[in-house]
User: What shape does this take?
Amino acid sequence: MDDLYREVIIEHYKNPSYRGKLDPHDISFADNNPLCGDHVQIDLRVDLSGTVTDARFDGHGCAISQASADLLIESIIGKPLEEVKKLNKASVLEMLGIDLGPVRLKCALLSLKVLKAGVYGLGEAGDDLVE
Amino acid sequence: MIKEVKLRSFRPNSLPHKFEAGTPAIAEAVGFGAAVDYLSAIGMDMIAAHEHEITEYALERLEEIPGVKLFGPSADKKGGVAAFTLDGVHPHDVAQILDQDGIAVRAGHHCAQPLHEKFGIPATSRASFYLYNTRDEVDLLVNGIYKVKEMFG
Assistant: This one.
């Protein structure tokens, strides 16, 4: 279980590389985890070919939620939106390199939910986005 | 429970019996009786004194930890609880790491979200103490918080 707080997670939590906001941006979406109050906002810039040219996240929450947001943003810069849409639960867990129980899984997947709701232009971020 | 059942209709019993279907809570009532006997044998005043003393000790020890901020009144004005935050670490992470050492605390709003908003904090971690808790266990909690600080240090 100590693996949950691997050095990489604590490092991304304490010193995130992509925390902030983008103004102007092409896509922006925010949501929170009602169970624990974790909050994540994601801003994207996308070029005409549909490639993510820049991205940032902002918000607050536990180490798992904030580190996974930072890792997620890192992984999508330079990627086409079509590839971003294919990201799922397994992609996030692979980035984190840990196995999570159902409660902490929600923390880890919050940023992906927010990202995909933004990319698809949805009104809300549903759990079905990260199956 | 039912008063009468026909092939195509039924009449429920009068209140409150219509909401008392199935086996009544017999085991629960017996268990409650055993709990009352147990607590009465120790003495509620003894329990209150122990709870007060251990909470006072816990608040003292927690207060010594740099970065820990306690919430709530002094031990003489509350039950056996100690809600706190630790600088730089989210309360859920504190709880999770303590859990790895077998220390169960609650993290979250504790059914008081507006109060947390008033204090400008996302949540608190909350240890609670009762009859069966010891000073040694408070020391384990304190050591556990130092471990959290080390991990996030």
Notes: The longest helix of chain A spans residues 102-119. The first strand of chain A starts at residue 27 and ends at 32.
